[in-house]
Structure formats: structure tokens, C-alpha cells
Predict the structure.
Amino acid sequence: MNPTTKTPSVLFVCSKNGGKSQLAAGLMNQLAKGTVTVHSAGTKPGKSLNPQSVDSLAELGIDITGEHPKPVTDEVLNAVDVVIVLGNEAKVDAPEGKRLEVWDTDEPSERGVEGMERMRLVRNDIKARVRKLYAELTGN
């Protein structure tokens, strides 16, 4: 990237901001190493992070224990280039001119897969999508 190029920015949104959006943000932060500005938020923020989400990222050497659920704000929506909604619970209207994508993420619980096995499948699905988005945003 040359100095005149603006750092791309992304907001990952889910309903509670305790699981999927935190997974996506943690994965993007690890992959981008500062080359993408990363935010996560929830339409109805929960009280805490999903412990299995935290543990599934820890398995990859990603520490999000300092994170907490945050609400979607107009300030963040207006500041980012891309808004990614994970799953189909959260509903967000991105400001005009902003790229909005809805990632219909894998939901292993619909197949009877629960616990850490479920969380790893969700994490790996999101990880593949984050890699693709990172390549689009940075050309890498």
C-alpha cells in the first residue's frame, strides 16, 4: 500500500456481538496485522462474549479476552467501508454508498452438532470468508 491509500475498514455485525462477529473481527485482526481497521458490534449486544468463541480463537493463538459486546452506532457505520452481517438474526441498514454483505454462516446446531465441535465449524466457515474479504480489501 502506498501512503496515499486509505486503510480499508470493516464492521462485523451479529445480534449479540458475543460470538460470530467477535470471531470474524479476531480472525481479520490476526490476518490483517493492522492493514485493515476492524470493528465488531451487535444489534442487541449481550452481556459477555461466548466462552466457546473465545476458546475457539485461542486454539489459533488469537486472544480476544479483552473484548466486550458493543452496540452498532451511526458513527462506526459511517466510518467503515464495508459492513458484514453474520447470520440472519441481525438486521442493519448500511449508509448509502457503503458495501453491505450478509454472510449466511454455517449453523452446525441445525445438524445436531453442539459444543466446541460446533464452534470450530462456525469459526472455520467464518475464517474462509474473512480470508476472501481480506484479499478483496487489500489485494493480497
The longest strand covers residues 9-14. The chain has four helices and four strands.
